[in-house]
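Bench notes, bay 3.
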Amino acid sequence: MKPLTSIDLFAGIGGIRLGFEQAFGKKLKTVFVSEWDEHAQKTYKANFADAFDIAGDITKIEEGKIPAFDICLAGFPCQAFSLAGQRKGFTDNYKGRSRGTLFFDVARICSLHKPKAIFCENVKGLMTHDKGRTFDIIRGTLAELGYTVHARVLNSRDFGVPQNRERIYIVAFGRDIDSASFRFPAPADSTKRIRDILEEEPVSPKYYLSKVYLETLRRHRARHEAKGHGFGYEIRGLDDVAGAIVCGGMGRERNLLIDMRQTDRTPVTRIRGEINEEGVRKMTPREWARLQGYPDGFRLPLSDVHLYKQLGNSVSVPVIRAIAEEIKKIIDI
């Protein structure tokens, strides 16, 4: 039986593709990948062996030069709609590139190739951005292209990872496909906690905060609390779930841990002052990968600074797999 084919747009490090491959197995073959960030490309290539190279900026690629495909995977950039950002939506501009309008590149590509299904992931704020008008435009565009659109906000913590991460998932089927029976997956496992994703061995002292930095965070939080703001660092208990990991701002500082297993407090990087004696540390990139449901066999070949960004921008793989399994029920032949 000939496998279904897919393309991976705004691919990041391949989390959406991984979830679909886990669901479809050998019944799905990726025929095209696009990702403009060169560092993300390196992590992607370390984990997926394709006979073709990763394409760059999708806005500069003609749709006719993309191979035919059955499923479009598109985690188009979320910063334009994120509550953590400026929420500029379709007017957003980043380094001369409009992140808010990149959805329309998905639309122009699918308008030509007319795949059986389109899958998109974005931040929850997409639904309410511009009083719901932004989402109405996206839904309406897909409908004009001849698709029946399904959308649902799901939380990663309900699918086997201890991360409170709400995202909107959009699934669109061509109208020649009977998708009346499609249902988003029900919550499957909300039992996982932070202790379940910890590194098995004591981690390097480089992940432990210096006394100076920890005190800076405390003063910073106190200033905001005095003004009635909730902004600041947060130490999570091992029986808690993590807050949503994000690539910038206070992403790491909002998910600090107390881990007393490392007894060597000799700094291995240049820090101000000594390592704190309270055991306060950041999570490691591998722990972030586990928070996103990546298997331990998934390679993390780059420096921490790139990995934190890539994983914070990525998706929760178990949620993708659960949705992909429901999509498979509709289009599997």
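Next record in the batch:
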Amino acid sequence: MATFEPVIGLEIHAQLLTATKIFCGCSTRFGAAPNTQLCPVCLGLPGALPVLNRRAVEFGVRAALALGCRLQPESIFARKNYFYPDLPKGYQISQYDRPFATDGAIEFSVAGTPRRLGIVRVHLEEDAGKSLHEGVAESGRATHLDFNRSGVPLIEIVTSPDLRSPAEAAEAFSRLREILVALGVNDGNMEEGSLRCDANVSVRPVGETRFGVKTEVKNLNSFRHVQRALEFEIERHASALNGGVALVQETRLWDVAAGRTHVMRTKEEADDYRYFPEPDLPPLVLDAAWIEQIRSTLPELPEARRRRFVDQYQLPEYDAGVLTQSMALADYFERVAVAAGNAKAASNWVMGELMRKMKDVGVAIEDVPMSPDALAQLITLVERGAITGPVAKTVFERMYQTGRSARSIVDEEGLARIGDAGAIDRIVRDVLAAHAATVAEYRAGRTKTFGFLVGQVMKATAGKADPGHVNESVRRFLAEPAGEPR
């Protein structure tokens, strides 16, 4: 049996975060009642003329610059003709042979291996409406149509076929998403359909340079779905070729419940869409000064920030990856790190107690009531030895619930570290006396009981005793001859 190599490329459809649609003034708000955000332009009524949304173009340019693309000074909108119930005009206004951005790339890594993914093009287009096949009245006999989404502005990002595994494809989709979200041009909400991925895959014998027969898997809305759908398709292609079965180019859909793809349609070629220039829109001309103005507002992108966190703060790559999951989380961490003067401690607290609390109460970092400076004060108390680690977690909970400062909680509730060696010795003697049987077991060779005894001392001090002193004191008293400790 032959061994095959997969060849994968992605097409990402990202809704731009504009308040109005790309060619009219209708709202893009998600969740409105069906067919309430419409006008003659959305519905393609005779005489209704499209007017291009400048904000949509700005967001498209912003994304293209971040993806390293070359911007074309002049691009053309075209009519892409196909007939679906949710496409009221019978065509989609898109860009075809003259898109506004080409020839970009992103860099990322998979399991520590650097990868580069070429970006063939980025173009602007309008979204279609939505066909509802279930969950509505008479859905068993009829398709219901909601045209609210008609005309919502999109960019389509078409990558080169540079990916060689489903895991790489899922990671690439994830990195593209985080770039778009960091730029503020897309909300990354795949459940609501504002970010969708089509994956193109073929296989070829290892060592072959020609492409095989391609399948497009449409409308994948999670990283896991991208990976699983591609894994299924690669296995299907390889099995067919090893069995002498000819593959045909087609578009397929991923069935999540069944864990398999099924045919949607045989794949159209460009000629099938009968593209021609949109007669109601002039060429899109991008002013060079405007492009540079947009470029000057681009934020530090997630991959660059990850590298800086490793270099500047000496963080492990894992920490840097977690902390740059969102711009807001990365901003919060940096403010904590600077105020506390200890980046690793700041990373541990943000990734540990803070993110655990966020998950427990179901809030995003933007809604956390504890300021970075407040968390930094708590970290400083720990680093200076003013409070112990266990007490610090208690203080954190009090801070989150009440908004009080770490210093006030420690002072008012008497939570400062017990550093007096004599006081700790007295508590240790009392604890060992109260657990004489356990002490006897330890001295008889069951040394695992040491941890229990240390825990009892820490419990007796409400976690305020210095752990190092406690360990030293317990070990010293246990080393004395059998009998009640002095």
